[in-house]
Amino acid sequence: MPVPPPPRAALAPLPTPRHLFIEFARMGLSGFGGVLPFVRRAVVERNRWLDDREFVELLSMGQVLPGPNVINVALMMGLRFAGLRGALAAFAGLVMVPMVVVLSAMLLYEHYRDVAAVQRMLAGMTAVSAGLMLSTGFRLAQSQSPTVRGLLVGVAAFAAIGLLRWPLVPVMAVLVPLGLLLEWRAEGQALRLAAEAAAPQDPPAPAQPPGTDGAAGEPRA
Amino acid sequence: MNHHPTVLGSFFTHFLLLSFLSIGGAATTIPDMHRFLVEAHGWMSDAQFSAMYAISQASPGPNVLFVALFGWQIGGPAGAIAGMIAICGPSSLIALGFEYFAGRAPQARWPGLIRRGLATLTIGLLCSSGWVLAASVDHRWSAVAVTLLTIFLMLKTRVHPLMLVALGAGAGLLGLV
Lengths: 221, 177
What we know:
Helix content of chain A is 75%, strand content 0%. By secondary structure, chain A is mostly helical. Chain A folds into 2 domains: 9-116, no CATH class; 140-198. In chain A, helix 3 (52-64) packs across helix 4 and helix 7 (168-198) crosses helix 8. The longest helix of chain A is centred in the middle third of the chain and has 44 residues, at 69-112. Mean pLDDT of chain A is 84; it is low at 205-221. By secondary structure, chain B is an all-alpha fold. Chain B has 7 helices and no strands. The radius of gyration of chain B is 18 Å and the shape is globular. Chains A and B meet through helix 1, helix 3, helix 4, helix 5 and helix 6 of A and helix 1, helix 2, helix 3, helix 4 and helix 5 of B.
């Protein structure tokens, strides 16, 4: 199915690299503890560069690819609208401008780091940060449909990285292919079951007899 | 602060590698950063590590900026820039390449397959990051209580996360943590 061209008539004219830089710097500076809500507001509502559906498509790609989601979205949007210069402008605005602020905050800390109150303040903030991270994990876990394969991969990741503190590279080398393989097998099986249910009289023979298929598919639901 | 070039070099190459693995965002690689910077090489103390993360949380901008702070602790301004180039470089090239070559086929089946297949892996890694951060604070019951209270408030109320960070800072100042 060919991709329909986006309805540009309803959207604003394409931004220039300069405009991208200014807008993404504004998004980066307004987002404390997560920029994404501000990116959506700026891109979809204030500037009308994309509509909500296009934004979600771009975001879900940004989440599949490695790297910070928001930065991936900024790069892809910059490239789409204004070429490589656009991508660089969006990146520079989103990352470099707030980086100056963060480094300034750090230098301020270096100056006062021996003050006991500053140490205690940062300890309190870190304890909260840990809670924020864990609650994000719990929230996301609640949004998942519970499957044995999902639980297996998630618990293995936490045990290996969080509890045992193993290096990430070998753990990912095992768990990434494992997660993909289990998902691919399960979805292939679900597709076969659906196809059999839709057309049971179809002559092309399934890979396995229907009995085994059904038994293997049952506990997943 | 250590400005030795080989230190900066191995910091740079390790973070290049982490960029490829940061599926679900840079925060999922925090446990490995802690292992590498604090446990394996001793380039930073536990307190420094958690302080840098807390500062980045309390500042505006994308989450990944804590890498710039780690870099600065290891090699000053050059370290900050090296860290950001390393953690953003490979993943940025992949994103740009993807948008350039494959962004025109959003109907493909494999993005959804990857997303679903790796979702719980990402969640496990996020929980590991929270765990490692919690363990990097003093092991006092009050810090544990603050972490648990944060989780409860985030799951049960609609309070803004930054408000909780501010409250955590206040609790620390008052000597409650």
